[in-house]
Amino acid sequence: MKPEAAFARMLDEGDRVLDRLDACVARHPDKTFIFYGEDEKSLSFSDFKARTDALAAGLAALGVGPDDRVSVLTRNSLVAALSMFAIWRAGAVYAPVNFNYKGRLLSYQLSDTAPKALIVDVNLAEAVDQVLADIDVPHFVVHQPAPGEHDELGAALPAGLAAHGVHDLEALMASAGPVPVVERHYHDVANIVYTSGTTGPSKGVVQSFRWMNQYNFLPRAFNDADDVLYCDLPLYHVGGAFSQFVRAVWHGNTVGLWDRLSPSRFWQRIEQCGATVCVLLDVMVPWLMSAPERPDDRANTLNKVHMQPLPSSNRTVAKRFGFDFVTAGFGQTETGAGFLVLIDQFGDQAGTPPELYAGLSKSGIRAAAQELGALVIDGDKDIPKGLMGRPSPLLEANIVDQNDDACDPGQVGQLVFRPRFPSMIIQEYFNKPEKTLEAFRNLWFHTGDACFRDDQGRFFFVDRMGGYLRVRGENVSSYEVEDLVNLHDKVQVTAAIPIPAAEGEEEDIGIFVQAVEGATLQTDTVRDHCVDVMPRYMVPVHIRIIEEMPLTPTGKIEKYKLRQALLDELKRTQRA
User: Fold this and answer.
1) Residue 507 and residue 530: Cα distance in Å, rounded?
2) Cα 516 vs. chain centroid, distance in angstroms?
3) Please, which residues bridge with residue 476 across strands?
């Protein structure tokens, strides 16, 4: 598909999520939009709109208006989903916060965002209370779970936050005030989503309404209104918030929504909501495959599964569970969906049992791929490692060297993008003009990922170029790990490195720590400190105390030497 035709089709399908929700309400108001599995609640499209409109009115009554930021810190995905659309309806900007954050990570993001209001679970209020002195938030809106709800844990509002004065979320959702009427354009800011920094603190990625349209354009081409999307990814990430949840308003899909993944209850959930589409991130694949095989493994409704990254075992997984199609590609908080490859695992044979199959027919999916010009691969064929597919027709992609000259086929360089049309990718890094200019140098957006292309125009992922790691579905900044470890008064310097994880294709964190001169430092002391100041997923698996860091002549830590030493040590341990 030529870029101009793709762009015209994208606009015809609708450029703003609010308009798409309104169209769903007009077309089928009583259809289930969200099945919230944690409490087995169902909300129709009209129910959802009524609640989010009321919350928008409540936020407006607090003074939230166009382009104000509203931060959301919640484990409850239904609360996040309702807040998201209410914030947009009020003309404000959705700024989600990782619910694992506390201490310095939390205070930094809230200070950087400077929200007009913060929506927060009472169960997470203690973390906010501990950083109250470091932040300036005019309004706190607290989610108090009702008795019997899954997140009703008996938590009390901390004294400091209570003294500040808070608003009850349910009360705001019952607001009878006028629903704000705010004209929003495709180029207006919809979200600020934070992504890990490599040489500094996390950066807020400023996204327009059209960014969400572009991000969903390729994946939704393989859906129709009969698909049910399964989402257990957190809604502070673009994958959960915009690909697996917001995508639903383009076709009017039902979404099966849970707060977090559960390997032991995964198939029960798929059956509960009748999901036809899901995302399996790295470690989820070996978890599912580790369960004993059953004769009825294929007796499920999933027929389109996105695997990120694409594991070499994708064919084995698809054959076992009957996934008719597997997709992979490249998704990024800054650039959206830049690539896509469709793997046809069964051809004309049935993967999903015919009586359980829903959504576009197999021939319809193949036709959609052909129209888009997407790369389609026979599942029986060998799939090269790191395959991302061909670029989206909406974006121009290239591989460049350190001078931004184009690399030859087969030559590894940095993946860069250019939008072919306005407001397709990141607008800027919030409050970081220098970082924005650096990322957009020479009129290309630099992703920080090492990739190559072959002579057939297929692109392949090799590795990350920057100092961040992929841990349990999270991008973890080595800078932030080191910064938090260095808070300990006996730590002189820290080096964080990636080590292949015991399961899956992601990474574990290893750290080498040098104590201040004259101090004695124990591994357990460092580990206890990490548990106190970090989210659980960020706590290093491997901790080593060393007398002195290996340095280059210019004083930089030679992390590659540390990594190799730890890999050699772990290999010796495994052999023993």
Assistant:
1) 18
2) 37
3) 469
- d(CA 453, CA 527) in angstroms, rounded, equals 42
Q: Is 322 left (phi over 0), alpha (psi -120 to 50) or beta?
A: left
What does the block give as tokens for 497? 């490195």
DSSP state at residue 354: G
Spatial distance between the Cα atoms of 263 and 260, rounded to a whole number of angstroms: 10
- Sorted by sequence, the CB contacts under 8 Å of residue 372 that are 6+ apart come out as 1, 6, 218, 221, 340, 393
DSSP state of 244: I
Q: Quick one: pLDDT at residue 552?
A: 60
> Taking Cα atoms as reference points, which of 268, 303, 260 lies closest to residue 284?
260
- CA–CA distance, 542 with 324 (Å, rounded to integer): 39
User: What single DSSP character describes residue 443?
Assistant: G
d(CA 455, CA 459): 10
- Residue written as token pair 């306005």: 422
Rounded distance, CA 78 to CA 83, Å? Answer: 8
Q: Could you give the strand order of the β-sheet that contains 507-515, starting from the edge strand earlier in sequence?
A: 491-500, 507-515, 542-545
Are the beta carbons of 216 and 246 closer than 8 angstroms?
yes
CB 203 within 8 A of CB 426: no
**Residue 80 φ/ψ, nearest 5 degrees:** -60, -45
Q: What are phi and psi of 493, to 5 degrees?
A: -155, 150
Strand partners, 453: 459
The span from the CA of 7 to the CA of 536, in Å, is: 42
Nearest-angstrom CA–CA distance, 279 and 307 = 6
Q: Are 217 and 392 in contact (CB under 8 A)?
A: yes
The DSSP secondary-structure symbol of 441 reads G
Question: Are the C-beta atoms of residues 382 and 401 closer than 8 Å to each other?
Answer: no
Contacts with 176 (C-beta within 8 Å, 6 or more apart), sequence order: 54, 57
> Token pair of 181, please?
């009427």
- Tell the burial category of 153 from Cβ atoms under 10 Å away from its Cβ (0-12, 13-18, 19+): exposed
Separation CA 267–CA 281 (nearest Å)? 16
- Regions of the chain with pLDDT less than 70: 197-200, 464, 466-468, 552-556, 574-576
Helix (H, G, I), strand (E, B) or coil at 289: helix
CA distances from 228 to 136, 319, 416, 570 (A): 41, 21, 33, 44
pLDDT of residue 475: 74
Could you please report the per-residue DSSP string of 490-521? TEEEEEEEEEE-SSSSSEEEEEEEEEPTT---
In this prediction the pTM is 0.86
What's the token pair of residue 93? 């900007």
Collapsing DSSP to helix, strand or coil, 568 comes out as helix
Cα 192 to Cα 97: distance, rounded to the nearest angstrom: 10
Please tell me the distance from the alpha carbon of residue 516 to that of residue 511, in angstroms, as a whole number: 16
Distance CA 352, CA 68 (A): 46
Residue 25: phi and psi, rounded to 5, are: -65, -40
Q: In the block, which residue shows the tokens 């099945």? A: 35
Q: What is the pLDDT of residue 492?
A: 85
Omega before 422 cis (within 30°)? no
User: What pLDDT score does 473 carry?
Assistant: 75
DSSP state string for 294-350: -TTTT-SS--EEEEES--TTHHHHHHHHT-SEEEEEEEETTTEEEEEEEEESSTTS-
Q: CB pairs under 8 A, 24+ apart, for 97-101?
A: 97/71, 97/72, 97/73, 97/194, 97/236, 98/194, 98/234, 98/236, 98/474, 98/535, 99/73, 99/74, 99/75, 99/124, 99/234, 99/236, 100/535, 100/536, 100/537, 100/538, 101/73, 101/127, 101/535
